[in-house]
């Protein structure tokens, strides 16, 4: 059964399997394991960005198409649903109208983009998409009377998906991090720490929205996994490895590349819709900024290009780092300020400097782990397997010789 | 009908063919002439004749028709200002297009150098603000030279480091180049935050470069036109640099090698030249020019922040694609086109300036997929 759910594409590494299961359980039971609004928001974003990064990976990792306009399609979705809700009132029809309209727009624009520049070299496509994405961002900024301009717009979600929608019962959550921290810092008072770790989880529309996002993210991820392991996905890989040869084998590579751009764009649009509904407030900066496009690239590469699991790992690691690494670095920086000599370099470790370290990590990972975290874990697992088999073979041979 | 056309072709074929030859042979002049010419026509259309058919005398002209009230002096001011902006962008873009032309290395970290140069220039100008405030020509020139030189020195040195550490390991792999140089750009930007702090830095422009030259009303045609002194200076500096670059490329030995390298890297290597060294030199000069352009832009905007290079990169990319990747002449004309369209469209409808820039690129690409002046690679 797992074989058909994962489309035969197993993690192929014990560590990776563990990691993925941990992420899955963490996200599935998240609202009951991590208290606090930051954690809740982070989990929602992780679910959304798993879709966005995985669909980006379809282009970048599986086909070697570098696009900087992926966030533009994300923006189509986010602004589409926000504007529909704005114009038609907060109801579910508006959501579906927004979704449908932005999907249609995405298909058209992705096709045009494909026609304009997919025939030329990868590098050209990257540059042209960068410029076009920028033009779209300027457009959104300037059309303030419908998009709110730089101030962004509030997404008036239906009442059923907002915090105002309360169900009467309250469930109990167990703060895992708080409990672990308590046990480590204060191991004698385990009972008290355990009692304090329980907290109330209110059943409201926000929680409902989170689970909708989670289910959709899981479903779309499995769909993409299915896609890349289908004959279609194999052609994409062939194009990546040697486009000329793929064409010589009779595949119209332009069709395939356009198709993958269209599919990835539609998935990004769905991601954008979910983003708008989860965060309930969108600005050009939070949906379309060039920096965000770079972040998506970072997530994809650090997690592992060409492995869809990489997007799960990458998005999780990056978003957790974005929200929590700052605190850690702030601590390091404070500690260094107090030390002699080290305080000269304390500026490098400031709380706002987390991106510097991610940049360094990114460059290093392109050089030394071009397949990212997931690829590296798989390589290690494969090496171990080979060593074990080699040993078994060697043992078999010695047994034969002695026997 | 078709026979009619063909006979017409026969009679005026020479002119038409010559026009076609001009259009395809000198696409940059064609587009430039088209843009400036259309704008000039708009400028020369008299207000009343246009307004007459629709409007009664003295009635307010609708917003859409405001563009017909351009006037020649405004056109002149816009054109010079557009050239100033274009030339600053040209200085920034030239390095990137040459690096691509020579080694087909696409450096998306170029924006980082622009920001870095801007901050270096700003530091010098702020440090020597009493020189700039003195109003003496000597000291003002001194500030400018020091600021620009310092910016070029630092970004040039950074360029060496960047080429050796970041780009060298990924020659010949476009995908990795894009990724690694973007990582490099993030690091450069964060380093700016570490060194200069996260806030924007004001750049006090020297007193002599403030204000504008206003032509005397008695001057025919352009009487009353006002042009900022700083923009004039940018035009002069940009034109000098372009002339120097063209001279270097067409008249010196290095220039011959660069041209040969753009055509065929292997053939240059076969002749025994170390193309890697040549490339390093071009990369360093390109980075220094990016720094210079950034410093000039920072002084023009009078404020710098770490993200400015990122925003300027859009224009740089439009310029190098429109001009034809690898061509310095194409880069020059495309930069002027971008500067002009920004000013022209920005004057008519400020909101559309950014979109018009990208629109220009798309339009040129539809017509000539390789850009205005394609570089032939064998």
Task: Quickly describe the structure.
The complex is a heterodimer of chains A (403) and B (378). Chain A is mainly alpha-helical and 403 residues long.
Instruction: Give a quick account of the main beta sheet of chain B: strands, pairing sense, barrel closure.
Output: 2 strands, antiparallel
Oligomerization category of the chains in this entry: heterodimer
Average of per-residue pLDDT values of chain A: 83
Low-confidence stretches of chain A: none
State mean pLDDT of chain B (0 to 100 scale).
80
Name the strands of the widest sheet of chain B in spatial order. 1-4
* Silhouette of chain A: globular
Q: Biggest sheet of chain A: strands, sense, closure?
A: 2 strands, antiparallel
Structural class per helix/strand content of chain B?
mainly alpha
Q: Estimate the strand proportion of chain B.
A: under 5%
Structural class of chain A: mainly alpha
- Greatest interface (CB-CB under 8 A), with counts per chain: A-B, 40 and 39 residues
Strand order of the largest sheet of chain A: 1-4
Tally the beta strands of chain B: 4
Number of helices of chain A: 19
Alpha-carbon distance between the termini of chain A? 43 Å
Specify Rg of chain A, calculated over alpha carbons. Answer: 24 Å
The helix-strand sequence of chain B is: HHHHHHHHEEEHHHHEHHH
Strand percentage of chain A: under 5%
| Unreliable stretches covering 5 or more consecutive residues of chain B | 1-11, 48-52
Order of helices and strands of chain A: HHHHHHHHEEHHEHHHHEHHHHH
């Amino acid at each position: 059964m797992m074989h058909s759910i994962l489309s035969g594409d197993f993690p192929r590494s014990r560590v990776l399997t563990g990691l993925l299961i941990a992420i899955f359980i963490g996200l599935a039971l998240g609202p009951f394991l991590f208290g606090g609004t930051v954690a809740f928001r982070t989990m929602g974003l992780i679910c959304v960005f798993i879709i966005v990064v995985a669909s980006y990976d379809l282009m970048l990792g599986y086909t070697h198409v570098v696009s900087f306009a992926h966030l533009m399609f994300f923006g189509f979705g986010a602004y589409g649903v926000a504007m529909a809700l704005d114009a038609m009132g907060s109801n579910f029809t508006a959501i579906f109208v927004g979704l449908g309209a932005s999907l249609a727009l995405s298909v058209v624009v992705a096709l045009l983009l494909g026609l304009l520049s997919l025939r030329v070299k990868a590098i050209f496509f990257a540059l042209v998409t960068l410029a076009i994405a920028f033009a779209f961002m300027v457009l959104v900024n300037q059309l303030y009377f419908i998009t709110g301009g730089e101030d962004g717009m509030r997404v008036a979600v239906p009442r059923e998906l907002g915090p105002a929608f309360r169900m009467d019962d309250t469930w109990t959550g167990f703060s895992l991090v708080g409990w672990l921290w308590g046990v480590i810092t204060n191991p004698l008072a385990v009972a008290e720490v355990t009692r304090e770790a329980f907290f109330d989880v209110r059943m409201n529309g926000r929680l409902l929205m989170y689970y909708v996002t989670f289910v959709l993210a899981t479903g779309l991820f499995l769909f993409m996994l299915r896609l890349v392991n289908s004959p279609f996905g194999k052609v994409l890989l062939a194009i990546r490895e040697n486009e000329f040869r793929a064409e010589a084998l009779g595949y119209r590579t332009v069709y395939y590349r356009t198709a993958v751009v269209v599919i990835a764009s539609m998935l990004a649009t769905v991601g954008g819709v979910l983003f708008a509904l989860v965060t309930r407030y969108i600005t050009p900066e939070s949906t379309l900024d060039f920096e965000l496009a770079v972040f998506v690239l970072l997530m994809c590469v650090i997690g592992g290009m060409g492995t869809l699991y990489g997007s799960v790992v990458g998005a999780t690691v990056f978003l957790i780092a974005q929200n929590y690494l700052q605190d850690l670095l702030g601590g390091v920086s404070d500690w260094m300020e107090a030390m002699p000599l080290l305080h000269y370099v304390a500026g490098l470790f400031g709380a706002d400097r987390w991106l510097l370290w991610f940049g360094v990590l990114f460059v290093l990972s392109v050089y030394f782990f071009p397949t990212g975290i997931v690829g590296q874990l798989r390589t290690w697992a494969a090496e171990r397997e080979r060593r074990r088999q080699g040993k078994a073979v060697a043992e078999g041979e010695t047994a034969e010789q002695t026997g | 009908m078709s026979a009619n056309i063909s006979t017409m072709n026969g009679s005026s074929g020479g002119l038409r063919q010559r026009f076609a030859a001009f259009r395809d042979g000198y696409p940059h002049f064609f587009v430039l002439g088209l843009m400036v010419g259309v704008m000039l026509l708009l400028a020369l259309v008299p207000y009343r004749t246009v307004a007459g058919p629709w409007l009664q005398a003295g009635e307010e002209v609708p917003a859409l028709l405001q563009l017909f009230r351009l006037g020649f002096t405004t056109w002149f001011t816009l054109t010079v200002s557009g050239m100033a902006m274009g030339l600053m962008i040209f200085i920034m873009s030239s390095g990137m297009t040459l690096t691509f032309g020579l080694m087909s290395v696409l450096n998306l970290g170029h924006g980082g150098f622009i920001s870095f140069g801007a901050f270096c220039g700003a530091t010098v100008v702020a440090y020597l603000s009493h020189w700039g405030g003195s109003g003496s020509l000597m000291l003002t020139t001194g500030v400018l030279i020091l600021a620009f030189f310092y910016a070029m020195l630092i970004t040039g040195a950074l360029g060496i480091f960047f080429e050796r550490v970041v780009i060298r390991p990924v020659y010949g792999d476009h995908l990795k180049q894009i990724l690694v140089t973007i990582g490099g750009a993030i690091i450069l930007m964060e380093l700016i935050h570490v060194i200069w702090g996260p806030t924007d830095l004001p750049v006090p422009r020297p007193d002599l470069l403030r204000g504008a030259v206003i032509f005397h009303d008695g001057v025919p045609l352009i009487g009353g036109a006002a042009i900022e002194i700083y923009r004039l200076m940018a035009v002069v500096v940009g034109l000098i640099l372009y002339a120097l670059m063209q001279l270097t490329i067409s008249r010196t030995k290095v220039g011959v090698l660069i041209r040969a390298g753009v055509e065929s890297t292997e053939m240059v290597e076969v002749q025994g030249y170390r193309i890697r060294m040549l490339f390093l030199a071009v990369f360093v000069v390109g980075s220094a020019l990016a720094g210079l352009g950034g410093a000039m832009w920072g002084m023009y905007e009078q404020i710098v922040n770490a993200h400015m290079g990122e925003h300027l990169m859009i224009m740089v990319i439009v310029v190098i694609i429109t001009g034809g990747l690898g061509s310095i002449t194409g880069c020059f004309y495309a930069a002027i086109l971008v500067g002009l369209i920004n000013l022209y469209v920005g004057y008519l409808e400020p909101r559309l300036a950014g979109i018009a820039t990208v629109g220009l690129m798309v339009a040129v690409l539809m017509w000539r997929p390789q850009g205005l002046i394609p570089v032939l690679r064998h």
